[in-house]
Amino acid sequence: MIRPAPVDKDAQRKLPIVAVVGRPNVGKSTLFNRLVGERKAIVHDLPGVTRDRNYGAAEWAGRKFLLVDTGGLDSEVEEGLAERVQEQSHGAIAEADVVLFLLDGKSGLNPIDQEAIEQLRKTGKPVLFAVNKLDTLRKQESLYEFYSLGLDRLFPLSAEHGVGLSELMDEIIALFPEEPEGDDGADEIEALETPPCIAIVGRPNVGKSTLTNRLLGFERSVVDATPGTTRDALDTPFELNGLPCILVDTAGMRRKARIDNRVERFSVQRALRIVDRGDLIIHVIDAAEGVTDQDAQILAYAFQRGKALLLAVNKWDLPAKDDKDVEAYREEVYYNLSFLEHVPVAFISAATGFGVRKLLEISARLLKAYQRKIQTSTLNQALQTIVKAHPAPLNQGRQVKFYYGTQTGTRPPTFTLFVNSPAAVGESYKRYLVHQLRESLGLDHAPIKLFLRARREERKRKLR
Q: What are the Cα distances from residue 313, in Å, to 13, 112, 282, 284, 345?
């Protein structure tokens, strides 16, 4: 049974969770990136850059934990996007074992800090307070004004330069729940790093975050009608038909010429890196807009890198469509993008859930095929049948001979075939081989990489 859900909660709880909270632009994402060890959250000096909860695996002094970066807390929020960002922050606090409240030593005290601290005290959670952006001794003198908040201890910090980090982290891990004997959390960290990655990509405002939330069963990504709402690439553990996966929701990709600020540019660069990182790429398009030139470029980028691809046509319920519409739409996609002829097209409504179960079923089959290992005997039986049914064109009057093949990789399935004259096999015949191997070996919709090699004896003969 297909079950869209986070990985086992009991297993997750073996790893302590640290939520980093505070006003917008106090340096939460900078601290997150330093501890996680990669530029996973976008860092920019604009308030509100981090809009969703962003999870990362981290380790300090041998203790592994999950770090959560959140949007900024604000005492007064308008309805809509800002309110939903607030909900994400409060959700992170609720699931945390330790809360780190970050203050801004550069801009000084703010009334919002006092109100937020009072709210945190009511949660009953262990809370530590750090004053960020104090990278010099002179700047650290401003630390004392924050004691007016009535806090017992403050940690001076420069997340950008790593100053003061050791003392703070030592105190954080001291507050973790006691670690079960013989359990270092390695299994959970491994589970976050090694499962196949499902990346949801597409242009802004086509419904990527709505689809992510639908798959996970809760509002993991902030959803708003403003294009570009999700800026970070967000990792969430996810279980697909019993297979642990990582689900990644990326920022929408626009043409680079239309990106007029650095934040959007960072998001585009990250989205392209996510395509490189992903195993299965679910590319979401708006049913009304169809496949644009930008979509075609992104799909071609993923295709050239051997990614498993699934095209999700979203908002299919606006207005209602019938089976004839489905077939006509699918045929138009294949006609305009012939390289996608093996790629499945799913028609969905992320908002209502229409077609999402089928999308999950297709995804599960695709991932299974993408990682499948084929027995050498099975491969060669299929190869001989395929070549016999349609032999390769003659090469200067000589028959091209296929001796045998072997699988040399997965993700995607990769095969090396040994022939008497690799150069004589044209591109059209290679496409025929790929298509027939996909059908014969049960690699439904999966990309296949094919390499042709001369046998050692053939190479020696040519060198004489």
A: 36, 43, 10, 6, 7
Question: Is the same domain home to 322 and 367?
Answer: yes
CA distance 81 to 214: 18
Domain co-membership, 22 together with 36: yes
Report the alpha-carbon angle 53-279-348, nearest 5: 70
State pTM to two decimals: 0.59
Spacing of C-alpha 225 from chain mean position: 22
Cβ 281 vs Cβ 275: under 8 Å: yes
Last residue of a domain, one of 117, 140, 175: 175
Q: Please name which of 75, 65, 60 lies closest in space to residue 96, comparing C-alpha atoms.
A: 65
Alpha-carbon span 434 to 432, nearest angstrom: 6
The token pair that represents 98 in the structure block: 């330790």
Is residue 334 a contact partner of residue 340, using CB atoms and an 8 Å limit? yes
| pLDDT value of position 459 | 55
Question: Are 357 and 391 members of one domain?
Answer: no
Residue-level pLDDT at 189 = 39
C-beta pairs of 354-357 under 8 Å, 24+ apart in sequence: 354/316, 354/317, 355/316, 356/211, 356/214, 356/215, 357/2
Q: Using N-to-C axis directions, what is the helix angle for 356-370 and 208-216, rounded to 10°?
A: 90
* pLDDT score at 323: 77
**Type and span of the H or E element at 51:** none
pLDDT of residue 358: 94
Quick one: which of 383, 373, 423 has its CA closest to 403?
A: 383
Closest to 123 measured CA to CA, from 155, 92, 161, 77: 92
How far, in whole angstroms, is CA 177 from its chain's centroid?
29
Question: What DSSP string describes 109-135?
Answer: --HHHHHHHHHHHHHT--EEEEEE---
Coil/strand/helix, residue 94: helix
Structure-token pair, residue 123: 């949660």
> What is the residue range of 133's domain?
17-175
274 and 396 co-located in one domain? no
CA–CA distance from 371 to each of 89, 101, 196 (Å)? 37, 43, 9
Name the phi and psi angles at 351, rounded to 5: -70, -40
What's the total number of domains in the chain?
3
Q: How far apart are CA 220 and CA 243, in angstroms?
A: 20
CA atoms of 120 and 251, how far apart (whole Å):
31
Q: Point out which residues pair with 64 in neighbouring strands.
A: 59
pLDDT of residue 11: 42
> Which one of 319, 354, 371 terminates a domain?
371
Interstrand relation of 234-240 and 243-249 (parallel, antiparallel or unpaired): antiparallel
Instruction: Answer yes or no: do 201 and 334 share one domain.
Output: yes
Report the percentage of the chain scoring pLDDT > 90. 31
Low-confidence ranges of the chain (pLDDT < 50): 1-13, 41-51, 75-82, 84-85, 182-193, 218-231, 251-259, 263-264, 267-268
